[in-house]
Design goal:
The chain is of the alpha+beta class. Helix content is 30%, strand content 20%. Strand 4 and strand 5 (147-153) form a beta hairpin. The longest helix is centred in the C-terminal third of the chain and has 24 residues, at 165-188.
Length: 203
């Protein structure tokens, strides 16, 4: 992409509905809208580094999607990468580890929230309120179109970059899908609708 390595940011939503937390009934969804993020410097230069965070503020014209064929052949996404991405989410989330009540009461656990500027530290949710986690998973694609999961961030950055139309569209769509999937049903009793989110069936 512009002579640079890039990664693919995908969003994974894990949730347990009100009243089902104690039963550990986990739902997992993968968003089909994704964003490519280029390295700060082109490959082969003296300063070439896989610096994704810095790249967030530069070269916004290189931001694109892979699912629409603008970055790689669309048939490779449809037949190879998208199925591989869903399978990676299924495998990882089948190993989902639930934190015990003892763990979430520890100082280290509370520090995680403090680091995200969530002050005062919110109380641990009750078992009847439900839980939701919006994660940011990063992938890379090699020359053989093999997908590699390089990082699974527990918290996705949900603040959009107004200079990147794809990022604005993705975050807006994600907000709509979260609302129709969880917020509307919980607050107003609407029928749950995942929108464009793809349900990942766990074993």
């Amino acid at each position: 992409m512009g002579g640079r390595r890039f990664n693919i940011r995908a969003y994974v939503v894990a949730c347990m509905r009100p009243g089902l937390v104690a039963k550990r009934q986990l739902e997992v969804y993968l968003a089909p809208y994704e964003l490519t993020r280029p390295c700060l410097e082109p490959c082969g230069t003296a300063d070439s580094k896989c610096s994704w965070n810095n790249a967030c503020q530069h070269d916004v014209d290189l931001r694109a999607r892979v699912s629409d064929g603008s970055t790689i052949p669309k048939d490779k996404w449809d037949r190879v990468l998208w199925p591989a991405m869903k399978e990676s989410v299924r495998r990882v989330m089948n190993c989902w580890h639930f934190s015990s009540k003892e763990q979430v009461r520890t100082a280290h656990y509370k520090d995680i929230y403090a680091d995200w500027s969530m002050k005062p530290t919110p109380p641990v949710p009750g078992t009847d309120l439900g839980e939701v986690q919006i994660m940011g998973w990063d992938y890379m694609v090699d020359e053989s179109y093999r997908l590699w999961l390089i990082e699974a961030n527990a918290y996705a950055t949900l603040k959009h970059n107004p200079k990147v139309s794809t990022d604005v569209e993705n975050k807006t769509q994600l907000a709509k899908d979260i609302y129709s999937l969880l917020i509307g049903p919980i607050i107003y009793g609407d029928e749950p609708d995942p929108g464009r989110l793809c349900r990942i069936e766990l074993s």
